[in-house]
């Protein structure tokens, strides 16, 4: 089975459906099943995530794909499907990922932390829930690596820029206080 071709087709389909100005019930079902298929392919074949990060065609850009479904989409059911899909992908066991390859957890957590300032502009429940879940998972992994005295623990702790994230949160709180 050519998982790479399936991934390209599924991502292209999801991307096209998300670009529609209005989604009907069937569109939401298509997105739900396509995301389930995509996460199943990724869980079966871990090297597909690197292909997602560096796609052969420019139809689907990883950052934009994740944000368009998880944050920009006006439909709560679609955002929830994206949250569940991305959470499942990030729960990949470390031994299932190839050494030197980008871990889904690291990529998605970094993407969410860098774009945290956008949450005040969109419905963000699913974004925030996924972010909190991934932060927990990330720091549990870092703690377990430290217990093993692993050199990777230092590198693992640098997935997000804590200072920049804290500055963004403080700035958003100040903006909200000024509005009030």
Q: Biggest sheet, open or closed, and with what strands and sense?
A: none
Calculate the mean pLDDT score and round it.
85
User: Please, how many domains?
Assistant: 1
Q: Any idea what the radius of gyration is?
A: 17 Å
Structural class designation: mainly alpha
Determine the number of helices (DSSP H or I, runs of at least 4 residues): 9
How does this structure look, described?
It is a single chain. This protein is an all-alpha fold and 180 residues long. The chain has one domain. Helices cover 69% and strands 0% of the residues.
Protein topology:
Elements: H1 3-18, H2 25-44, H3 48-53, H4 62-72, H5 76-90, H6 104-114, H7 125-147, H8 152-156, H9 162-179
Helix pairs in contact: 1-2, 2-5, 4-5, 5-6, 5-7, 6-7
Key terms for this structure?
180 residues; mainly alpha; 69% helix
Short description:
It contains nine helices and no strands.
